[in-house]
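Forum: Protein Structure Q&A
Topic: Joint prediction for protein chains with partners

I've read a bunch of threads here and the consensus seems to be that you should model interacting components together rather than docking separate models afterwards. I'd like to see that in practice. Below is the full input, 963 residues plus whatever partners are listed. Could one of the regulars post the assembled result?
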Amino acid sequence: MERRGPFRLLAGLRGHEIIEIGAPEWERLRSYIQTDLLGVAVAVVWLTVLWATVLPDGRLLAIVALLLAMAVFLVRAVHLIHGYRRFAAVVVFALANWIVAVAVTAMVPFALATLVPAVLLPVLVAVQHMNHVRLSAMLGATMLVGTALVVVGSLSHGAGLEEQVPGTVTNALAIAYIPFITALVSLAAWQNHGMLVARTEALRESRARLVAAADRERCQIERNLHEGPQQRLAAAAEQTRRAAALLESDPGRAGPLLARLSDDLQEASAELRGLAHGIYPPQLGQYGLETALRAAAQHAPIPTTVRAVGIGRYPPEIEINIYFCLLEALRNAVKHAGKDATVSILLQDRNGLSFDFRDSGVGTSPATLQTGTGMINMNDRLSAIGGALTIDTRPGGGLRLHGHLPRSALESAGVERSRQEPGERVREALQAVWYAIARVYTTLQRSAHPHPYQYIATGLWTILGVALGGGALALAVFAGTRIPWLLTLAGLCGAVALPVVAALRVVRRDRVRHAIAVSAGTAWCFALALTVLLPSALPYATLVTVSPVLLSVAYLPRGRFKLVMGATVAAAAVITLAGVLAPGVGFEQAPRWITAPVVIALVVLGLTRACYLAWHNHVMLVARAEAVQESRARLVAAADRERRQIERNLHDGAQQRLVAAAVQSRVAQRLVATQPDDVGPLLAQLSEDLREAQADLRDLAHGIYPPQLAESGLEAALRAAVRHSPLPAQIHAADLGRYPPEIEINLYFCLLEALQNASKHAGEHATVTIDLREKDGLCFDFHDTGNGCHPGLIRTGQGITNMYDRLGAIGGTLTIETGQGAGLRLHGHIPRSAYEPSGRT
Amino acid sequence: MRVLVVDDLPSFRRAVAGVIAVVDGFVLAGEAASGEEALDFLRGEPVGMVLMDVNMPGMGGLEAARHIRCRHPDVKVVLLSVNNTEDLPRDAMVVGAHYRHKDRFGPDELEALWNDGGHSDS
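Posted by a regular:
Agreed with the consensus. Here's the joint model:
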């Protein structure tokens, strides 16, 4: 039964498990928002108690109302996640934080220190959920909101609550909330760190799985062709010969034989068509995704409806992957959803291409789903074309799959769509803001190089600048006023400057980890010293405190990262205590026109640095995974091209010959009764057609998966391939055994590709030598004596890229050596570890 | 009746020509390898029936059938497909053509088209 009202709201908040395999998890985003909600709830209770016991002031209730409004925003964000609108959820989450932060600061400026890191939090959470463009807009917004917040906090006189609220209450608020927000910021950094480490690994695994699946499929197609249509064709050819013989000896029996022949040919043709359809449904290429899916739905054994909104045509790799994804889901539903289940599929092109697959079946536990290969396979397919798959299920509650291919993925595949996204202008403006800030920042630190030295050095230089500037100011004021503690202050500033200079030297020559440790220690000591001296600089100090943890994301291993996280939260607690309890040096008593600009400048500086680190982490996150991701996309595209080609070849070759033969057999059947003399030549033509169809199929099957490879191994299969090569080729193989099929097939196709390359480009007088041996793994050396090629040119070629991808997918490497007129040398190596665990047979 | 055979594959055109040759009352008017060629042919020659493959490179059978029905409403168009009719796109049923399965095509089918006017689509 559908729950209503508050119950439904609560159930929605607690939520059920949303699974996203091998991609940033929605669960995490939701848990942030929920934690944020918890923080808001605690604040609401606190303020209400304050209002009820100590301070019955209406303005407190106004803040409570604001916080409750924020809670509504956050609840909305959770619901957006359930509707698979992750980007919208992050935006709502950010807006809620930002609006409330600015409003609360305007009323109670002392909350500024607590709220500055809260403004930063959404963008850190967004790092793993957004693309470059959106993240840069979000960073621009963060900078603007942060600046507005600190301006409001420094200039606003507040609503006069400070005087009425006891000091202990405001202090307790700061002491509890600043470490809490710091912990959340560290947690966001920790998860970004996890993503950075895990994504490349996950991508590698996914690539290997996809290649293995494509190879299994090749093997299966070859077997199906061999066992099905090839056998039937052989039988039909035999029948034709017998019919031709009977025509001479016993024309009366030839008629029924021909009738049977035409039935057999019809069946063979249907079988071949079914096979080709399974490889690549022809409707997909001809009429697109919608028609192909409708056809699949018609043939499904459970009632399936397909609805399409705004669906057009897409590049083949997108159509084929979405099609097979949904086909897999449909097969899954047929197998597991139960006999009374129905399926509905909704395809939609709005801000990207998405599908919603729902079955009304028995559902399952999320744990079972995660272990099944079906879902992993679907996710691999979808993420290879730049999309993501989300699964939502409960026992008894059916299954819901949501696939989304963002518009950026469609655009990079060449799909033109008119832009309808609301707020496009706003996004562009925010993006421009961020790019301007980033440009200024990179100019200041004189480099955009990703090595952390520059970040650390910039931070240390900033500290040095602030310390020396503060010291100089103190000295100048001392010169005028002769107040003795100002001299002490100047001395303290000098004392801070010395270790900073020492740290700069360490950073310049030492390793990244030490540099980060030095930088973290200095940053925290600096923040502490600054807060002790100037309690009103606490908002800046909190930002300084979290920057080491943001810096560590891209460089520290897991264990050290935890250490930095713990230290960050501890430092935040100590610095907050210092800021709240230390009397300071009387800076607060200075006129506001002096204090406000200093605080504003410091906070904007701190915010810029933190935002730049978040940006940098995102760049690293994308860059590290990029190469593997591209290689995976290429492999999937190559496998899909191959599927289409096989289907095309079947359709244009054997299948057409079979159809023609079936029609001819009917004509022959008719002629036996009326013009028996004309049947002989017709049967000769028929048997010629069948022979050609058989040859077509045999060649095709051989190209898909050479039978020698499975039967006798790599060496025999290569020797067979070399026999058909137009260039003279020699194969030397020493101590070669049998290897797991995925190794053999990939190596085979790799060398076949090299052989084809050589026959295309090496020139007609070239010869080829292939050396295969087992030495610390499996190695090959391919050498042709041809024209060679410029090394730069060869890397751009599809053939070499394909070989590189194939070998990479099985854990091997490829080295190329070539020059003009020097022939081409390829050296491939597959380490033993790539095939030993699966057992050498 | 003069019949135009349209298919991009010569082997099937040859087979259909064989069918036309053995059924009384039908004469092969000509052969075309694409929708465009068929339309050109129809401009110059009188034809009573067009036997056409659905799936051809360039202008496909559906598109060509639409043009033929528009320009030559008295020509009977029979689309031959290896797919069942439900696997064709949704607008395939409104072009005003008859559908026959390629696998089952033969002299009997052609005679049936003659006899019942081709109303029963397979």
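Helices of chain B lie at 10-22, 35-44, 61-71, 107-116.
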